[in-house]
Every structure is written in structure tokens, then in C-alpha cells.
Amino acid sequence: MVEDSKVDLVVVGAGWYGLMTAKTYRDVNPSANVVILDVSPTIGGVWAKHHLYPGLKTNNMLGTYEYSDFPMSGVNSFGVKPGEHIPGDVVHSYLKKFAQTFGIYDQCRFGEKLETATKIISDKDEERGWLLAIQRGDASYTLRTRRLVMATGLHSTPFLPKFVGAADSNMDIIHCSDLLQHSEKLFANSKNVAVFGGTKSAWDAAYTFASKGIHVDMIIRESGRGPCWMSPPYVTPLKKWLEKLVSTRFLTWLSPCVWGDADGFGGIRGLLHGTAAGRKLVNGFWGVLGNDVITSNEYDKHPETAKLKPWVDAFWVATGLSILNYPSNFFDFVKEGKITVHVAEISKLSQKSIHLTSTKEGDSIITVDALLCATGFQFIPSVKFLSENGEPIDASTVGLPHHADSDNDLMDEIDKEILTRFPRLKDQPTLNPALKPLRDINGAKELNRPYVLYRFMVPPAFINDRSIGFAGSLQSICTPLIAQSQALWLTAYFGQKLKVNTDDEAKVKREAILHARFGKWRCPGGSGSLWPDFVFDSIPYVDLLLADLGLSGRRKGGMIKECFEPYGTGDYLGLVEEWKRTIDEGRTSVVMV
């Protein structure tokens, strides 16, 4: 193993968050030596080339899935027209061109996997950091870095379940993220495929095969969370663009949010969520939103489409609310029998067959050519964090999900605070009584503690070390906006130029737990119990980060526009330069911690 030279920053992950973090850090520190590591052979993260099977599109339409300083139009046009959902290969090309344009593509090292990160302890700030062990093909090397940003997000390593009888099934068992490598053969030779899962990825795969005349058996676990919410792009009786609805400040007030007061409208939020009349208005909005989706999709007008009706109200699911972005009507395939929906468990596999068991439908066997698994990802980074003596650093210390046997007094206190501020959350939904996790992380106990990171980025135990941060360890449909804000916040944090005082470690820890714990109560029908999962709360989160930077979140130039005009990437154009001017002019206090 050969030791490489020391660098200023290593970013792990070359997707939306990693690329913006590297660019922003270089914008502020032009002479910094930055390295971007990614295990994939190409740029893009989940939009890397090997993930993009034919027909795959984003939920986003043109204008909402781009960085502020690099619009997907004009000189950077990729042929996508207004009102069109952006194809996956366009996102890949866009991110590659972005990296090349801003001089960070050459800093990317593809096909390299970070195996371990060992903490380096020193009294001198410039000598602290991490020693990284990196695998590159059959070779390995080490790299010292003062700062480390884990930008692998929640969707980097596919999770593939283990099935009884898989070895003798004589069928392809493929994770949907690997479908491209098998698509040509499957499209040409398959008569019937099974798709396992009820998430948006499952719907995408099912539509792709059904549109090519290949029958699909879509299997949704009886012991799962049910099919995801699938909304038309335009919702409510007023037919508002959903992506912009969630970034309209007035409508963000209708979502209870523990960090929501960062937008400066705490009084209005208090009336909406702290009074009976306000909660009635909030419930009415969510009722209209959910009913509009149910009505538009006509679930109850056919016995097969009824199986795709969500099991939990829209209020509770966060990013489990997705968008129908297909060229034709998905539900027509179901009504015509081209997609057959099963609510059942896979008991075992045998020769070209899947054995299903269901308390409602009984046992059955379906014959298939392939089993496609839309079963999510290992949402915890695969890297092992080690102390200076080589011992593993506990997951809770690094702020990662883990198992704890019981709540402590601080948890109880925080739960009481959340439910006092937001009485609506006391009335939790009735989840599937048969619910059980599909995943088994190395045989460990069930994970019952979420990511706990200050501002969803920094482990409280490392807050004063300023050597590590996480970017993108959350879910939101406002990816570029949050990526930009997190990148600037981390850059300022590493450079000791935040306005917020992080000296009080106990206060930092409590606030991190408060924000993390809120997800358990707010999004029990989604993934809030394990990681930050929010939709209508993205703009107030950006407001929170901007306040820490000494910048204003109100960027519309008038109260009417501020409240009722949707926020978009253009509203944050020039954010880094704006922040740099405040530093030069001395308006942001520098907190040495």
C-alpha cells in the first residue's frame, strides 16, 4: 500500500451533492487541493451512466432540476422542452458538463472505493483530519486529508434481498439500478418479468417492460408499507405544478416543521399548528391534496388499480409521494392485464417460478424470465470509521443509524416538546400491523435510531473538530437547492465562518436530536424514523442554513411575492459571491471553536 500526498478536502461521491460541495469549496478556496472519489466508473451518482436504462426519467420537469449558476437551457440546453420530464441520460450529461465547465471533473477519481477512514488526532488544526484507505481495482493506497465530506447520500449501494431457492431458480435476479446491463437481453427474450416492490422505481420498471409488450407481475409485500403515492404533475383543483407547490412559502406553512420558524414566520406557523382552527385548515389542505390524487388516478374504479391505492394518508409519507411521468397512462396497463398486481410475500423461488403467499389471495405460483428488485439501497455508508488506534468508531458517535435498547430522558423530553408544539402529530396513522423491515444489515439488530447530524450534516461529537461532514444524507425533491445550501454551509463551517455559535456541544447535540427525532413523528409512513425525509419543509431548511451563513432566506423582494410566488433555483443565483461579500465587509461574525 502506497501513501499518497495530503490534500485539503476529499469528497466521497460524484453526484448532485458531491460535485456542488467540491465546486463551492474551490470557489471559496481557489488554491485548495480537492479530490472527489466515486466507486462508479462515471460521474452522476444515482445518475451514473450504468444506472440509466432506456426510458428512465426524473420526476422533475425542465427548470426545477438544475443548479442556480448552470441552467439546463440556453448554452447548456440538452433538448428538453418546457413541461417535459428530464430523461436520466440528460441528467448524467448535465452533471458531467457542469463538472467540466467549473474545473472539477479532473479532480474526480472514478472506480475508487473508500474502505476505511482513520481519525488523525493532533493539537495542531492543520494536522488533524483523516487517513483514508482507498481501493482502486486490485491495488490500494492511502490518502491523508484535513477534511472529509461523505456525499454518498442514501442511494449508493443497492440492497438485494436473499430469496430461498434463488441458486436453483434459473432466472435473472436484478436490482433495478443494474437494469441497463441486462435490458437488451430481457427486452429481446422475455415474455414475463416480475417486479418486486411498490416504490417509484418499481413503477418505472413495470412501465418500461409493459410498454414493450412484456407482461409484468408487480409484487408488493403484504408486510411492507404498500404502494407509494403517485401524483399527477399538476395537483389540487387549481392544477398547480406540484414541484413548485412545495416551494411556495405560504404552502410550506401548512406542514408542521420543527425547524420551520427559521423562515421568520413563526407566528403564522404557531397559529396554524398550535390552535384548533389552524389545524382544521391544515387538515383541510392535506385532505384536498390527497383526495385530488386518489380521484385523478381513479383507483377505486377497477379491482386491479385498487391494489395500488396507498395505505397511508399523503400527510405522513414525505418523499413517498412521487410523480407520474410516463408518456401514457400507467393504470391502463393494469386495467388491460399487461401489469398484474399481487399483494403477497415471496416464499421461495424455483425453476423459473416465484412462489407467492397471501392472507387475502392465497398461495400461487407465477412463471417469469426475470425478477427485478426495486428494494432500495443500503442507506449507511459502507466505509468503516476508525479511531487513531484502529478501533471502530461507534455508529452513534459518527451520527449514523444504529440500534439502542431504550429511549433516554433526553429523547422523552424532546418527544414531549415536539408533540406539545404540534398536537396534530399525536394522532399517528395506523400503519400496517404486519409491517416488518425487508433489509437485514449484516444480521444486526433492527436500526431504531436515525441519522443524528447537526443541520443534517455534522456529527455532534465532531462539531469542534471541523474535519468531517455529510452532504445529501436526507431525502427531498428540492435536491439542487439543498445541495447548494449544504455545500456553502459546509465550506463556511470548515473555514470557521458561520454565524451560528457551535461552542456549546450539549446544545448542538440536543438540536441535532430534536431535528432527527422529529422525522419519527412527522413521516412514520415514509422514512422519517431513519433519515430526514421531507417535501414541504425544504425551503425553511434552506432558510435555516442561510441564517447560519448570515444571509437572508427572503429573496423575492416583496411580501406578496415572498408568500405566494414559488421559489426556484434562480432565486439563489450568486449565493456564494453574496456570502463572500458579507465576509469581506465583516457582517458575518467568525466563531472560533
UniProtKB/TrEMBL annotation:
Keywords: FAD, Flavoprotein, Oxidoreductase. The keyword NAD does not apply. GO terms for molecular function: oxidoreductase activity. This is FAD/NAD(P)-binding domain-containing protein. It comes from Terfezia boudieri ATCC MYA-4762. The lineage of its organism: Eukaryota, Fungi, Dikarya, Ascomycota, Pezizomycotina.
